[in-house]
Amino acid sequence: MAKPLLKYLLVTHIPFARNAAGDVVLDSLWARDLDGIAQSGWAVRVCAPELASEAAIRTWGPSAATLPKDGPIQFSGFPPIARRIDIWKWPKIRSVLAREVEAADLVHSSNVFQPYVGLAYAHDLAVSKGKKTVYVIAEDFNDMLEWEFVRVGNSQSEIARRQRQVDSLEARSKLSASTASLTFLHTPAAVARYRLSTRNGIAIRQPGHETDDVISTTDFAAKCHALESGAPLAIVAACRHKPLKGLDLLIRAIAILERRGVPVQAKFFGSGEQGGDLKALAARLKVDDRVLFPGSLPPGSDVYRAIGEGHIFAMPHRTTDFGRAFFDAMAGGTPVLAFRTPASIETVRDGVDGMFASLDDVESLASAIQRFHTDRQLLIRCSQAARQRALDNTRSDWYRLRAEWTRQLFPEGV
Q1: Which residues, including other chains, have CB under 8 Å from residue 179's CB and lie 6 or more apart?
Q2: What's the pTM value of the predicted model, to 2 decimals?
């Protein structure tokens, strides 16, 4: 007799909506993650804030995805919380979460961001009922929040209040990690900060690409030939245009290289609040003919193709946050240029599949690019190592490992 499917409940703060046909609309990157979990053969149910219409969906990237209402992933919605005064919604939220947790075999949640939406409530309820739990710390949210939320306060008292809020979130995350059956630490910074708080903590680095996304042998050979011929270096960046991404520092580094007579061409894919300022800076430094802004790309093949056409992938991120962009670059056979932070040094291999510059140091950033310019054989070796690493480290590989670790929670079978 076949064993019943594991009832896998994922409680998240990431919202969804339903279209007129009843299908689910959500962020496309999040949809890909859910698909990876569903491929493990579990009965996956997502419990999340449900927005009134698909027009209200705001995505991380440029696109949304639609999942069929009768597909392998089912959704249960609760009222979204946007402000503290939405406290009146809590009874309904807790009622939905209590029902879903009761029906689940395993409850999966993650570190909380404000507005608080019940992730900790669902986790604690599952623990109290003896359910198996998976807890995910997805990034170094402390560093990111301190950069984008705390330090921009309008007064010292507001900064202090916001810091207390971030400290409270960190304490809550440590508590959940200490009681979870299994904790996945998705970033090097999360490993350093939380590993001693976990009962069973595992570092995991999840790329977004599959083998078919890796640059082809023919295209890669053409890229290496262009590098050997001395072609100007093509620098690619693909991210949100926000201050913490360090793109302004990269523009200044390109201006330094211009004065040194080192020819480079850069494309900054993406969009965001800093876009206008970045274009103005490039014009002021007289490198606007070398720094182009082609706009955003949908996740997937278009991103890999654009990165593959570059010679260096620049990610001068100024915090310890970790993005899949490191691995996206390697799928394009493109070495990573990053600031030396806990995220980069535990991911990119300096001088092997990328190169580091000193944090926030424009001169160091320019010198790293110049080294690749003058030592084309080093750049080709790093490109080869990046491509090979992408072939050895795919999304399916990591989901298979995640599934194996999660199944170990149920040695008796479910």
Answers
A1: 123, 124, 127, 133, 199
A2: 0.86
